[in-house]
Amino acid sequence: MNKLKKHQKIFVNRSLNMASIRSLGFDMDHTLVLYNRVNFENLAFHETLKKFIANGYPEELSTLKFDPNFVIRGLLVDRDRGNLLKVDAHKYVKVAFHGHMKLDKAQRSELYNARGFKADDYLTVDTFFALSETQLFIEIVDYMRRNPGKIQKTFTEVFKDLRTWIDLSHQDGSIKTKVLMEPSKYIVRDPHLVETLVKLIDGGKKIFLLTNSDWAYTNSVMTYLLDNQHEEFRHWQDYFEYIIVSAGKPNFFTGSNPFYEVMTDNEGLLRAHRGPLIAKKVYHGGNANLFEKLTNQKGDQILYAGDHIYGDIMRSKELFNWRTLLVVEELEEDFKKTEKMQPEFDAIMETIREEELLQSDMQSLRSDISNHERRQKNKHAKKEQESKFLGKIAELRVDLKAKEEQLEAVHKKIKELVSAREKAFHPVWGELMRTSLEKSRFGKQIESYACLYTTRVSSLRFYSQGQKMRSYRDLMPHDL
Ligand SMILES: [Mg+2]
User: Fold this and answer.
1) Is the pLDDT of residue 21 over 60?
2) How far apart are CA 407 and CA 118, in angstroms?
3) Among 115, 225, 277, 344, which is least packed, fewest CB within 10 Å?
4) Other C-beta atoms lying within 10 Å of the C-beta of residue 234
5) Could you confirm whether 202 is annotated as catalytic?
């Protein structure tokens, strides 16, 4: 398994035996179907922007530019203040922007770090769909900052408008129609997807599709993706034992909606459904409780793969004990950079060791000084010894001063090295799963909720159907 490159590996937070998994479920968007993110997000950005202008926002906004690299997943949006935040695993705001203006340490402290930080007060950028809308929000906030008074609304109101119009862009087809008209521009085919699905089926697993997308969109996209790619599975539906569209996750895991059967040969009309789910039919809505009952499966026999930590992973794991595989597509880029940046990382670790050594030297110097001072002050000490002590103390102080200066230089060096490394990952936000050298909030969430994570579902092809996937995260720091 060591031969695998990092981006091909599946990482394990919670051990899992593939042999005890009976079925594997897949989310569709950004899990089975990968999008050309630049084209797709650019489209969503501009379609939504058009709605802002059509609804009375200044015409000038049409000059706003989409930047595919500005926002990353895991950031938090402070809707009321128009700020974008990167938070570490301890809820400390490490980086913050108001529009494109970076907030300094004092501002961050006043707004966030000096008071109890409740992450729930903010919106997490946790889907790819949210990247373009967040950027649009930040661009409008920045426009308002540069042009006071031109938009007579609060940031909260602007965000509300944004939500309405982005939802409308998804519903009224302004995005979907364009995707379906030119699928090759927007959808990326993973060359190993077919092989992966066939391998799972040959290994005795049942696979199912559980998506929030509606039937018409699902059918069109999956047809483009999977039809006529394999002799035995000519039609995309042939791969899946169960197909559930418009699932409404995460409510699928918390609610009690009934299943409807989708009349696929009758324009997708819905018919109420009773009794067990029938393989190869298409269902709409439903809930996880009923799904388990109707398919006669228990939670821990199901492995579900999705890209949305909240919609796909958290609730399915917490409430139903489904095993979970999170797809973190953008880690592939981070991994490439990690590999390239290994010498820089080694330099950081080396400098940290230097820092530890200096600190320990300084500690012994300080205790030497205080011991000598104690002896010198001792009233029984002889006069001639006193000057000896004083001389020694002065000597030790010179040493200590030198070490202090060295330590300061080492601190500065570590700061510079860490900051250079962060900038190499992302000029604004640094590494996806880290803030400086610590875990980011997003990294911590992945660790807590995803049993497994990987860059693409096709990594599953490298693992056998009976594979024991072991977690090493329960090792303590002293075990390493
Ligand atoms: Mg998805």
Assistant:
1) yes
2) 36
3) 115
4) 12
5) no
- Return the higher-pLDDT residue of 376 and 30: 30
Catalytic residue among 27, 78, 88, 312: 27
Average pLDDT of span 260-282? 91
Task: Count the Cβ atoms, other than its own, within 10 Å of residue 20.
Answer: 13
Q: How many CB atoms are closer than 10 A to CB 425?
A: 18
Would residue 265 show up in a list of annotated catalytic residues for this protein? no
Render pLDDT for 237-263 as a digit per residue (tens, 0 to 9).
999 999 999 999 999 999 999 999 999
DSSP 160-214: HHHHHHHHHHHHSSTTHHHHHHSHHHHEE--TTHHHHHHHHHHTT-EEEEE-SS-
Residue 123 CA to ligand 1 centre (angstroms): 18
How many A from CA of 142 to the centre of ligand 1? 29
Q: Are 309 and 315 in contact (CB under 8 A)?
A: no
- 127 C-alpha to ligand 1 centroid (Å): 7
Exposure string of 60-83, with b = 16+ CB inside 10 Å and e = fewer, is ebeebebbeebbbbbbbbbbebbb
CA–centroid distance, residue 396 to ligand 1 (Å): 63
Give the Cα separation of 340 and 334 in Å (integer).
10
Say what the pLDDT of residue 101 is: 95
Question: What pTM, to 2 d.p., does this model score?
Answer: 0.87
CB atoms within 10 A of CB 389: 18
Catalytic residue from among 29, 78, 161, 307? 29
CA of 52 to the centre of ligand 1 (A): 26
